[in-house]
Amino acid sequence: MRVTVVGAGIVGLAAAYTLVGRGVGVRCLDVGEPMGARSAGDTRIFRVAHGTPELVAEARRASELWDDWSMTAGRTLVGGERAKVSGPRVPAWAAAMSAAGAIHRVVDGVLHDPAGGVLDLVATREFLTAAVRPERLEVTAIDPDGTVHTADGGADHPDAVVVAAGAGTPALVAPLGVDVPAELEHHARFTFAGPADQPCHLDARADGDLASTDQHRTRVGHWAVGGHLPDTDTAWELGADEVARRSREAVVDHVRRLLPHLDPTPVDELRCTPMRGLGDGVHRARAGAVHVVWGDNLAKLAPRIGEVVAADVVGDTPVGGGAADHAP
């Protein structure tokens, strides 16, 4: 069997890696560098804590698979920092953890997730690209029969296609009758110097212009802080520079007032372009031999998504379908 995977972000690479492990011939194509768009940066937060029992269960399976990846890579890909969640979503998230049988505790209104930690995306990228060897080549179109057309004039004729192309997915799959949300927004997170020996933290309490914040250690021992602004401040039409300026202003103010252990002058920033309004959860569709997967906040679930998509491609998807069937 031959499969072409379109997209070399962490989800595309995870699907390709799992297919290679099943003995499938895989070609992985991306217009840019591997994990260079939505998967960019050196770290992300891993957490089992989610808002539904189904997503908690999928994250628990993802944790097992991250351990498998770490063993194969010979490197620790998920740190032991743990994670905590605060704010109004704690009761529902704690109930979801209990329903899924996930270890956790709530102390003084804060949910503690002992399985949480920091994903080392640099090591993950090295591990996956060594196994998959993606090609830097733009895919311009995909035909209903699965023919993949590339910018160099080539045409690939695999047995199946997996499309995990991030922002490029809607245009590629719309001609196949697959409706993927095309509205994007800008987002930025910022890195600060200071102590970084704390759990990852998701805080749903509003602070000024920020509806919520997320914080975690970076790979180099600094502290990353991101915040969610109102939709009017993240609109695509504003441009990345303006959204980053507004985000920086709000996050720096947050750090200055509430995180005094950090130097409030950012030392780095990371920009990305999530799909608007999706939040946690994974979505997939199929048109003939073409399998499509999309969503946001997917890095933590990547090994599980790869497992489910690969099983679907080779025809042995388990009953219930796995991670890609669950949305918030």
Keywords:
globular, disordered C terminus, 328 residues, FAD/NAD(P)-binding domain, eight-stranded mixed β-sheet, alpha/beta, 7 helices, six-stranded mixed β-sheet, FAD/NAD-bd_sf, 25% strand, 28% helix, oxidoreductase
Mean pLDDT: 93
CATH architecture of the domain at 2-80 and 119-133 and 277-325: 3-Layer(bba) Sandwich
- Provide the CATH superfamily of the domain at 2-80 and 119-133 and 277-325: FAD/NAD(P)-binding domain
Q: Count the helices. How many?
A: 7
Task: Work out the helicity level.
Answer: 25-40%
Q: How do the strands of the widest beta sheet line up side by side?
A: 5-6-4-14-15-16-13-17
Low-pLDDT regions: 324-328
Report how far the terminal alpha carbons are from each other. 34 Å
What would you call the shape? Answer: globular
Please report which band the strand proportion falls in: under 5%, 5-15%, 15-25%, 25-35%, 35-45% or over 45%: 25-35%
Largest sheet: 8 strands, mixed
Structural class: alpha/beta
